[in-house]
Amino acid sequence: METILNIPVHKAETVATHQYDLNKLPFGKVPTSHLFLARYSGGEWADARIEPFHKLSLSPFALCFHYGQTVFEGMKAFRMHDGNISIFRPAKHHERFNRSLERMGMPHVPYELFLEGMRLLIATDAEWTPDSPGAALYIRPFVIATEERLGVKISDEYLFLIVCTPVGPYYARPIRVRVETNYIRAAEGGTGYAKCGGNYGGALLPTKEALDAGFDQVLWTDAGRKEFIEESGTMNVMFIIDGILITPPVSSTILDGVTRDSILALARDRGITVQERLISYHELEAAFGQGLRVEAFGAGTAAVVAPIESVTIGERTYNCYLAADAAMYAFKTELEAIRAGNQEDPHGWNEVVVCN
Fold this sequence. Notes:
This protein is an alpha+beta fold. The chain is 21% helix and 29% strand. Strands 1, 2, 3, 4, 5, 6, 7 and 17 form an 8-stranded antiparallel β-sheet that branches. The chain has a 6-stranded mixed β-barrel with strand order 8-9-10-11-14-15, surrounded by 4 helices. Strand 12, helix 5 (258-269) and strand 13 (274-276) form a beta-alpha-beta unit.
């Protein structure tokens, strides 16, 4: 099997899908049978290939272990109603991937290499794509610095890999969040908009403290005034207050979420008023205090739409609107229908990569 890039495929001797119920796997635990990799040196990407899934052998001197040059994306492929497999919005993901790489001083990955490597990997591991509602094949492209040297510098060598895992829903129930005003996730001019490892490492302790206190996630606030809401955990966050959809604007501290962008497009298609603007937790308190209908939800590739059950601000907890007629459920239903091929795809988001 070859593509226009002539990427060789070295197939695994055995495929272990029969050992698992692909529709009931914990998130991110079981890899598919193969991976894609390419190497960067001398200013160009080369040696692209598909191999059986295996562990990596890297020098302890590899720069990725020391100075943070690691960037990744999170994407999904879906089994459509006709049996075809499609990737959701690969071009948008690729744009964000390269923005992250650029911010970390790392080389861009050409779109042809990105898409063809992914297409070939998914085709090789097609039987790993689940077919139940809400399930998908999660795709993790990532680049790491591999030059062997102790010393702070931009690496001259990199490894680009793509791995996949079948997944079900990320959150099984609505989540409880608290507004975080002690720790910060990102500051203006930093790396908050990039999907680099350090952004997530720095969030682990605050998230653990929230979990220990009985919450599922935190609502991050801005680094300056610690007042304006930015993201929820690893997701963009949205509020529907009295029928108006409000979400923080994309900035150097907020990830340009693909699911976020998709939901905003669907909302505008429905004639819903959308406001991309700053929203403070004081405004939320006022809305709850006035008895307004407040929906809150996270939006991201892993979680898709994660309804927020309650928001805790200081010592007070406010309950969000979760009834069946909440608009957030309609967004999720429509998005899932488009990705499954059960509804028209007016924005051309689906990229079919495997035909039945």
